[in-house]
Amino acid sequence: MPDPTPRVKVCGTTSLHDALLSAEAGADALGFIFAPVSKRRVSPEVAREAGLAVGPVVARVGVFLNQGLTEVLRTAEAARVSAVQLHGPLSSLYVREVARYHPVLRVLRPADLGQPDALEVLSLPGVTPMLDAPEPGGGVPLDWAALRDVFPAGAWLAGGLGPANVAEAVRVLRPAGVDAVSRLEKAAGVKDVEQVRAFIQAARLQAAPGT
């Protein structure tokens, strides 16, 4: 039987301090955003330093949005990330090429589910779907009940998650992993240790069968 406990990713990590904070709190993965439009964008050097500091047990995920293939691969290599998270209207060929080099979290919106490109992506080796809100980082949760019958097996969940609601999201959808950013911060790019700890604890609260 698969482990029902979701992996927990703390995204938008911008400093060595916050990386260590999240790792010590029990995060399974850290997200480093390289998208130029993000107010939480970090350099590959910062991500690499933080990733080396937390060690190999914690996954380091590079987050990209509509960036060129060469830029993604070069940045991922320089930052020494262990996986790549891809946002935006990308072709399955693009996703397949990235997956040749790194495990991929392919971000989809609810409206993408059932579309030919999404179905093809979900069949690619090395690619795991992540369902997110139409506006990533906006802090608005998805309608989990409406997604119960279409949520892809083995998918991750993002979109407006935080300590107050993640247990319910896990209970309803049983995602393989959960991801949060804005509700774990004091300010954009600055983590709140109490919120990070509470999120990780709550994410695992509903994981046991029968809860």
Report what the structure shows.
The chain is an alpha/beta fold and 211 residues long. It has one domain (7-205): TIM Barrel, CATH 3.20.20.70. Helices cover 34% and strands 20% of the residues. It contains eight helices and ten strands. The strands form two sheets. The chain has an eight-stranded parallel β-barrel with strand order 1-2-3-4-5-6-7-8, surrounded by six helices. Helix 1 packs parallel to helix 2, helix 1 (16-25) packs parallel to helix 8 (193-205) and helix 2 (44-54) crosses helix 3. The longest helix has 13 residues, at 193-205. It is globular, with a radius of gyration of 16 Å.
What name goes with the CATH superfamily?
Aldolase class I
Order of helices and strands: EHEHEHEHEHEHEHEEEH
The tally of domains stands at 1
Q: What structural class do you assign from the helix and strand content? A: alpha/beta
| CATH arch. level architecture | Alpha-Beta Barrel
Neighbour order of strands in the largest sheet: 1-2-3-4-5-6-7-8
Overall morphology: globular
Q: Tell me the span between the first and last alpha carbons.
A: 16 Å
Spans of 5+ residues with little confidence (pLDDT < 50)? none
Range of strand content = 15-25%
Q: Figure out the total of helices.
A: 8
What's the Cα radius of gyration?
16 Å
Q: Please count the beta strands (DSSP E, at least 2 residues each).
A: 10
Can you give the mean pLDDT?
92
- Major sheet details: 8 strands, parallel, barrel
- Helix-residue proportion: 25-40%
CATH topology: TIM Barrel
